[in-house]
Amino acid sequence: MKTKASILALFFLSTIISSCAKKDIEHKEKETTGFTELVVPADFNWKMSENVTCNFTSEHVSKVYVSTGANTTPFASFYVGQDVDQVKLNIPTYINTLYVKYETKAGLSTAKALDITNNTVTYAVPADSEEVETVLAYSAKTNLSRGNDQAVIFYPARENGWGTLMFEDLWPAYGDYDFNDLVVNYKMQLYPNNKNMVKEMILGIRVKAIGGSLPYDLCLAIKGIKAGEIDEFEKQESNNALENADMELLNPGNSEKKPPIFRFNNIRTNTKAPKGFAFLNTDPDKKARIQEGDMVNITFYITFRNSIPQADLTLDAFDFFIAKPVKEKASQWQEIHTRGYAPTEEFGQNVYEQTKEGNSYIGKSSIYYTSNSNLIWAINVPTDIPHAYEKADFLKAYPHFKDWATSGGNQNKDWYENTTGNRNDSYLIKQ
């Protein structure tokens, strides 16, 4: 496919990562911290965002814009009307109100506040909304851009904003819980047509830190769709990465009915990383540190064979995980997912069952990738946040994290946001 310059202008991606042979930074044997002593409710799902159904109606097809504030930039624009599918958005759990505007012949309306009730917002678009008459076409040559008024839905819920994936890599054993063994940013843009069906999307990946020595690769399974639905995918833009850093579909084929599984190859090596270090952006003494603009940063463009309802492509459908081959059989992986996501049937299921067998941390819970006390090895934060330096106490780096976790997510839902009392910068690495 041809590179879509208009999309890339939208998608301001920066860069990271590295990995070298010599261990100049001391990453000592993993030790547990107070994290393992947390008393966490057994049913706590560890999620910081949730799906919200937009129960919108309109007398004719109208275009609406949704934001998290009355005067903030919309993170979603889509269509409303008869025979138009409902949309499900994904927003941080601490947000209780969304704001909607609609198109009129005179321009955008004023913002209307919508309270979120039972994960639903309800709105009837007024009759003075402008009727959408042009059917938007999709093809490899489609010029997607905000300029041609293409609708777009961002994950996470802010325009061009990053989410943050943080991994501990010693599953099923407890690690040191500084959540910096692999730190990766992600962002996605879905492009719905006038029926809110998605044919094209963009995925951005940015590697922030490598604090673990195990050779885990970042992977992605897209739940709820078939691998046969993947039409094409290509690398659109790459910064500070090896030429062969790319995304690989591991189960291709038009007849493949299981979810597509992608692996991001060679993104751990950063061409601008300091030489002679085994780790990156984790040392408190500022060794092997790089700035945001020097991070590995890659944009991918994906098209589906058939249009998919947007409600089937919520953020929950995107299962980011890390995986490494087991020694005796390279085609079998040890995987680490966020709580509740199953290991892949093709590569990880057998290894998961064998690894957890007899392990003192795993077994009583029937929920994947949680310990018997409902601790986890990976978290997905719906914004870009600084990570802890090596051996830092994560509970001190983010003082309100403990209250959030032990309350089952009912308190301090915004523990990660950059507001007073939420962060202790002396434990964090900020670019």
From TrEMBL:
<feature type="compositionally biased region" description="Polar residues">
    <location>
        <begin position="412"/>
        <end position="425"/>
    </location>
</feature>
<feature type="domain" description="DUF4842">
    <location>
        <begin position="196"/>
        <end position="416"/>
    </location>
</feature>
<dbReference type="InterPro" id="IPR032295">
    <property type="entry name" value="DUF4842"/>
</dbReference>
<feature type="signal peptide">
    <location>
        <begin position="1"/>
        <end position="21"/>
    </location>
</feature>
<feature type="region of interest" description="Disordered">
    <location>
        <begin position="412"/>
        <end position="431"/>
    </location>
</feature>
<dbReference type="InterPro" id="IPR031025">
    <property type="entry name" value="LruC_dom"/>
</dbReference>
<keyword id="KW-0732">Signal</keyword>
<protein>
    <submittedName>
        <fullName>LruC domain-containing protein</fullName>
    </submittedName>
</protein>
<dbReference type="Pfam" id="PF16130">
    <property type="entry name" value="DUF4842"/>
</dbReference>
